[in-house]
Amino acid sequence: MAEAHQAVGFQFTVTPDGINFHLSREVLKHIYLSGVTSWRKRAIQFKNGILTGVYPASPSSWLFVVIAIMSSIYARLDPSLGMIDSIRKMLPVSDYLTSQSQTVLSAILFATGLWWSLILLLRFTLKVLLSYHGWIFEPHGKMSSSTRLWMVVLVKMFSGRRPLLYSFQASLPRLPVPSIDDTICRYLESVRPLLDYDQYKNMEIVANEFKKDQAPRLQKYLWLKSWWASNYVSDWWEEYIYLRGRSPIMVNSNFYTMDLLYMIPTHRQAARAGNVVHALLQYRRKLERGEHIPMRALGVVPMCSSQYERMFNTARIPGIETDCVQHMRNRKHLVVYHRGRFFKLWLYYGGRHLLPSELEQQFQCILSDTSEPQPGELKLASLTAGNRVPWAKARQKYFSEGVNKTSLDAIETAAFFLTLDDEAHGYDPDRAESMDLYAKSLLHGKCFDRWFDKSFTLVVYKNGKIGVNAEHSWADAPIIGHMWEDILATDYFRLGYTEEGHCKGDINKGLAPPSRLQWDIPKACQEVIEHSYLIAKDLADDVDFHGCVFEEFGKGLIKKCRTSPDAFIQLALQLAHYRDKGEFCLTYEASMTRMFREGRTETVRSCTIESTAFVQAMEDTQRLALFRKAAEKHQNMYRLAMTGAGIDRHLFCLYIVSKLLDIESPFLNQVLSEPWRLSTSQTPQQQLNLVDIQKFPKYVGAGGGFGPVADDGYGVSYIIVGENLITFHVSSKYSYDSLCLQDSHRFGQNIRQAMLDIRELFSLKEKTERKKYIS
């Protein structure tokens, strides 16, 4: 009971002589250290808030301006053109404020106003400079002199030095609203290869009627919103695409990220969890202070960082009509799930983070605990995996008071959720299905051993492999990817393990063990839990996954072919899908719009006239020329999407406005109902400086994936790692495979063959050119 005694700061006893107090020095020491840590954190946040608030200037520049103004006054010059004298006349008369003091104070106030005006001017200038996107449309490796001047001189000059994570937020331009004519023209072009002549002509008529009658009014409201709100898309996108969905978020919305492909630094589950959780706490501390380096395209153009704010201490809260995202601050505990039990673990000791060895000790206590789950506790998390309305009603009825509310609050306010899984997973080249099982485990697990509403669930398997299941409404995959790259590098290269596989450091016997969360779940609630579990299990069993590790060639060889790696892969996907289904389909590729304030994603419609022409001409002698034309088209569409000139977010917002105004639009109804039967996304590598892949070739990420967007379609995620590796994650559903028309494994093999066939085009060209040279 040592921990119970330490939990009491003081005790007292009543005697005939009075009251005797007995203070616990150990507890008072921890209280003092916690207070010091808290005030230090506030001081750092305050300092960084000032640095961010005045960026791209610095606080010291204020002193420089004040000294310059004061020096000019003493030199009997008036740079304010009489404004200092006007300010002095407005100051109150006082015995303590002499005429000279009034002049000095007036000069300081004028200098401060001038300094702040210069900051606003710098920000406006930087915003104008960042609104230029001509650089992104220039051929790779061929930068014009005007772009070089813009990038090297102007942007770098106005970007300041040593920016913090949120330094550029006030300088980012707003997402522009495309013109109706451009959007409809691009939309019609995108559906042309998918429709026959009569269908296309009918669509043209509907689109032109919309452009003439309804679109101008809807567009005006979008223009108004674009000037009033920070971003005219993001809030509606979060609400209507994610939070208002009433179907399960497991599989349908959440996504996963895997561990390194080849490496496991330790097979001790508790040790791996200790290092990774400590690395996450270090990352969170820098995030709370805003000390992470902001991401910048080409090392110059800043990306929006707003999505990072809700990474930790965040949960999606179910509602009857719509969910909401709850974000808390300064939460110091973690909730751990193991074999049907929930544990609460404090992450701080004596005002500091628990060390990796201390965390390993705590996790080992949980793994060694032999207690049984309480009634209803085993599958409780399946409430977050099923339909949203039953979960919202159960939360209101059974979790609004007592121990259930206390325990649920502990989960929803925790830094994140951790599952100590009792299975072993990971990539094994000798087991063909190893990647498939690993992916399914991360995406849905057993349907009751991940808390799908948390911003992310960290999964640590019994063999030491790890992964993440992430909720999608609060942020997109690159945000989780940024965190995950940092965590893996910290785990492997900074923290490390002993020769026995334990975390480095000593054991702390003074730590209180993790505590069990208590539940009082009645039979009626247990029935709701079981119903949610059965729905989630049917959904999980219906998902087919295939992980394809493509090692034949990678980015290095593709670049030698003088084409974009992403365009190369997207055209391979078009070829693979055509061979798989015998037809083309509406294809979604996610592109980011984070060059704009609060930007998230835009759609690249990868199935184009040019790509279909290439696929159909694979037996034609002109196929290489068609490939290059299709690749250039894809790159151009990707660039348009990145620069705010995409199609789908504009049409989506027009649709929302039409619903708010109760305007019925056949065109928008048809556009928004079209299924994405091929949904694709590239997992970007963002921090290449963390790991030298040339030196450590086995330390490569495996990427992540998601479930199929359409029930009769495929979901494909891929990551391009280093120069010689591409990993594909393919998903589909068994329920639409009664005629063997859909199979993730077959589609994965089609992708592999399509990649090789396109590579052969360039090999044939090289051979032809070599023969010409020899002759």
Automatic annotation (TrEMBL):
Domain Carnitine O-palmitoyltransferase N-terminal intervals: 1-47
Record bears the keyword Chaperone: no
Occurrences of domain Choline/carnitine acyltransferase (ranges): 175-753
Gene Ontology molecular function terms on file: carnitine O-palmitoyltransferase activity
UniProt keyword list: Acyltransferase, Fatty acid metabolism, Lipid metabolism, Membrane, Mitochondrion, Mitochondrion outer membrane, Transferase, Transmembrane, Transmembrane helix, Transport
Entry GO terms, CC: mitochondrial outer membrane
UniProt pathway annotation: Lipid metabolism; fatty acid beta-oxidation
Catalysis performed (reactions): (R)-carnitine + hexadecanoyl-CoA = O-hexadecanoyl-(R)-carnitine + CoA
Documented EC number(s): 2.3.1.21
Parts of the chain that traverse the membrane: 50-75, 104-126
GO biological process, one term: carnitine metabolic process
Domain of life: Eukaryota
Gene3D superfamilies reported in the protein's UniProt record: 6.10.250.1760, Chloramphenicol acetyltransferase-like domain, Choline/Carnitine o-acyltransferase, domain 2
Topology in membrane: Multi-pass membrane protein
Active site (record annotation): H472
Compartments (UniProt record): Mitochondrion outer membrane
Keyword match Lyase: no
Known role: Catalyzes the transfer of the acyl group of long-chain fatty acid-CoA conjugates onto carnitine, an essential step for the mitochondrial uptake of long-chain fatty acids and their subsequent beta-oxidation in the mitochondrion.
Similarity-based family: Belongs to the carnitine/choline acetyltransferase family.
Protein name as it appears in the record: Carnitine O-palmitoyltransferase 1, muscle isoform
Lineage: Eukaryota, Metazoa, Chordata, Craniata, Vertebrata
